[in-house]
């Protein structure tokens, strides 16, 4: 698993900086809302992201929890379990997933009630289910009572009450605590049940105490003599020096002292203070100056007055036409996360340079040299709604936004600035969840370069020099199967000698082959492990929440020194993709096709997207590769997070950090990691997408 770049540090910084709301939810040593170890019916605030690390003598848990909706949360956990007296003297590294859903809200007379499933797709070491109720009896005291199954019924268990209705629920089938990865649905809410409960007492906003009766007897650990069980009572204390940073101290089972640190961030609440934007220029009316019309007759360059003023607003003019009563511009938004905001600013600047005869303004936002849409505005309507409270919506209602007119020939703006750009920044990369070495770090310098041959034809590259993190790995490689090529499981051997490496180096062309159609062709070193050729076509109407795409690749595996050589493995891979924007902040995607190891299958993903650029999602891939050939984990699955840089900086920028957390890097379901895929580029300029979702920023 690769915890890419600075995500972990970003979340920590966010927790320390965000003091805009009090943290009322307490988190367990499992990283979920609860008491010491037992869950409660409380939920984190909607959209909250929680990272937690807990440690005691024989167990460590690293958890990532996301409040997907106000009622539903999911948790990915990585646990280190010492088995010094067991068959594995090095211990067990266990991955697990949880879900929790609050089915009843709390009222003055009724408790909140939630239902949860813990470790439903791991090895089953932590497997448990529960129904729990929590009620605030005073402003500072919560009382919790619950009924648990599985691990939460290993102490004080009694016959399953569900067995009176469904006799098959009386027995809990045994689960093989082996490679895991498949849902243990045959165990859910089966076998003995047990009661648990506790009290949370908040002394102040910074300090709270918990006491609980635990129905977890730690049977497995006790049988291995790794814990001394003396009492079912756990007690804990939580101290919050900042609203989104908490330290836990607990006394477990009457014998063990445990500690934890929890950080949280809510994408809905900005971290950095908002840096006041440079005010947009006022919308200019007709001035009757005949020289204004004459200024459009000659060739306009990037140094012309209108282009320079647009550039000062973070907008690069690349095409124009002013004739009769219509003015048309094509531009690139280089600064603002919202294309609507960039369009509004472009229109304001343009108005000051238009002759009086112009009645219609057409603005075409563009990225990578391809127009994304065409917005047609009436000049008088713009003037009437510039300072109205609902002016942005009024402009939208009176305007037409459609696909750009590809047959219209614009005058190109000669770019007299340098076509070459570069940047040199430090990078930090964590490799975690590897079975033999659960945490490794790679840090150094990364040089990024780009040369724009044409607006839609680009050479870009990424080069790294490791300063800390050259890794010694065992010479024996772990094969998933004799019949499965090591397309990802050898990834830890790439770039480990501390020498400079080429992360990627590609030539990419973007195009518009037809109405509602977009294309991309890339050739070169496409990613850290593969080079080759990649082609993609996307169908996406401006006003459609549905998009369809097709991608075809010829990929050759690179040498492990990540320089110019290739190995003798090559494969043709590709996918048909469907994307759907559910209009409530959720994006769904299905990719069906052939993967790098030659297996055929499909990837299903769901992301929650926030207007400020945050995105948190999960995915899983099922292919025709049998689980036993795939190996530990059974199938590919994981979590992905996009963090907007302006969330921390305050001033606008389109930069972002993308990270994947997958439980284990295996060869099944492995897809080529190509930069610049079309959907995320194209949808930014569509009304059925971020352009429409953020239209309220048009006058900002």
Task: Please tag this protein with its features.
single chain, 700 residues, mainly beta, Porin, GMP Synthetase, Chain A, domain 3, 14-stranded antiparallel sheet, 12-stranded antiparallel barrel, 11 helices, 33 strands, globular, disordered N terminus
Q: Order of strands across the biggest sheet?
A: 1-21-22-23-24-25-26-27-28-29-30-31-32-33
Structural class category = mainly beta
H/I helix tally: 11
Strand element count? 33
Major β-sheet profile: 14 strands, antiparallel
Blueprint (SSEs and pairs):
Elements: E1 2-3, H1 7-17, E2 49-56, E3 59-67, E4 72-81, E5 92-104, E6 112-118, E7 128-136, E8 141-150, E9 193-202, E10 207-213, H2 219-223, E11 233-242, E12 245-252, E13 256-265, H3 290-294, H4 305-312, E14 315-323, E15 326-333, H5 339-351, E16 360-367, E17 370-371, E18 374-378, H6 379-385, H7 391-398, E19 400-402, E20 411-412, E21 420-432, E22 439-454, E23 457-468, E24 501-514, E25 517-525, E26 530-539, E27 546-558, E28 566-581, E29 586-594, E30 600-609, E31 615-623, H8 627-630, E32 636-644, H9 646-649, E33 656-662, H10 678-682, H11 690-693
Parallel strand pairs: 15-16
Antiparallel strand pairs: 1-21, 2-3, 2-13, 3-4, 4-5, 5-6, 6-7, 7-8, 8-9, 9-10, 10-11, 11-12, 12-13, 14-15, 14-20, 16-17, 16-18, 18-19, 21-22, 22-23, 23-24, 24-25, 25-26, 26-27, 27-28, 28-29, 29-30, 30-31, 31-32, 32-33
């Amino acid at each position: 698993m690769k915890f890419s770049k600075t995500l972990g540090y970003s979340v920590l910084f966010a927790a320390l900086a965000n003091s805009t709301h009090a943290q009322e939810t307490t988190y367990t040593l499992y990283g979920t809302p609860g008491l010491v170890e037992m869950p409660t019916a409380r939920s984190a605030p909607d959209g909250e992201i929680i990272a937690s690390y807990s440690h005691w003598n024989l167990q460590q848990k690293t958890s990532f929890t996301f409040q997907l909706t106000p009622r539903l949360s999911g948790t990915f956990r990585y646990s280190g379990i010492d088995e010094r007296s067991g068959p594995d003297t090095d211990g067990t590294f266990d991955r697990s997933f949880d879900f929790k859903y609050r089915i009843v809200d709390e009222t003055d007379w009724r408790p909140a009630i939630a239902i949860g499933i813990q470790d439903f797709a791991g090895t089953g070491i932590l497997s448990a289910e529960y129904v729990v109720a929590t009620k605030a009896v005073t402003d500072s005291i919560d009382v919790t009572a619950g009924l648990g199954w599985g691990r939460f019924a290993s102490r004080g268990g009694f016959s399953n009450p569900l067995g009176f209705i469904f006799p098959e629920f009386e027995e809990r089938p045994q689960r093989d605590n082996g490679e895991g990865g498949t849902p243990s649905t045959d165990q859910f809410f089966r076998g003995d049940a047990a009661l648990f409960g506790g009290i949370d007492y908040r002394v102040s906003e910074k300090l709270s105490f918990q006491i609980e009766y635990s129905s977890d007897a730690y049977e497995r650990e006790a049988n291995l003599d790794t814990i001394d069980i003396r009492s079912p009572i756990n007690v804990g204390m939580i101290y919050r020096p900042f609203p989104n940073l908490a330290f836990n101290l607990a006394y477990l089972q009457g014998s063990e002292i445990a500690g934890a640190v929890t950080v949280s961030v809510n994408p809905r609440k900005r971290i950095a203070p908002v840096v006041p934007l440079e005010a947009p220029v006022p919308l200019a009316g007709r001035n009757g100056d005949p020289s204004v019309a004459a200024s459009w007759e000659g060739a306009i360059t990037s140094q012309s007055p209108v282009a320079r003023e647009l550039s000062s607003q973070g907008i690069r003019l690349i095409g124009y036409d002013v004739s009769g009563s219509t003015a048309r511009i094509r531009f690139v938004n280089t600064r603002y996360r919202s294309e609507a905001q960039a369009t509004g600013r472009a229109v304001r600047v343009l108005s000051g340079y238009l002759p009086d005869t112009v009645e219609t303004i057409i603005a075409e936002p563009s990225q990578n040299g391809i127009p994304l849409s065409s917005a047609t505005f009436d000049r008088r309507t713009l003037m009437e709604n510039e300072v109205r409270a609902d002016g942005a919506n009024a402009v939208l209602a009176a305007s037409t936004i459609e696909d750009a007119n590809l047959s219209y020939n614009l005058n190109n703006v000669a770019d007299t600035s340098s076509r070459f750009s570069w940047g040199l920044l430090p990078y930090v990369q964590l490799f975690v969840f590897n079975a033999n070495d659960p945490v490794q770090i790679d840090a150094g310098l990364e040089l990024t370069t780009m040369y724009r041959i044409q607006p839609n034809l680009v050479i870009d590259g990424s080069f790294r020099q490791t300063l800390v993190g050259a890794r010694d790995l065992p010479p024996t490689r772990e094969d998933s199967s004799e019949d499965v090529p090591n397309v990802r499981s050898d990834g830890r051997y790439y770039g480990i000698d501390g020498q400079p490496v080429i992360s990627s180096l590609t030539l990419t062309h973007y195009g518009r082959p037809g109405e509602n159609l977009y294309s991309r062709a890339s050739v070169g070193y496409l990613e850290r492990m593969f080079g080759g050729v990649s082609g993609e076509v996307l169908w996406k109407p401006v006003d459609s929440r549905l998009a369809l795409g097709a991608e075809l690749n010829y990929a050759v595996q690179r040498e492990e020194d990540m320089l110019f050589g290739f190995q003798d493995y090559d494969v043709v891979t590709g996918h048909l993709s469907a994307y759907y924007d559910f209009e409530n902040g959720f994006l769904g995607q299905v990719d069906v096709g052939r993967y790098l190891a030659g297996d055929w299958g499909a990837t299903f993903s769901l992301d929650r997207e926030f207007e400020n650029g945050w995105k948190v999602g999960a995915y899983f891939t099922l292919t025709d590769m049998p689980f036993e050939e795939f190996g530990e984990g059974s199938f590919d699955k994981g979590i992905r997070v996009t963090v907007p840089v302006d969330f921390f900086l305050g001033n606008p920028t389109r930069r972002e950090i993308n990270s994947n957390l997958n439980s284990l890097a295996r060869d099944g379901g492995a897809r080529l990691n190509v930069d610049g895929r079309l959907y995320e580029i194209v949808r930014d300029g569509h009304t059925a997408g971020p352009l429409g979702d953020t239209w309220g920023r048009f006058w900002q």
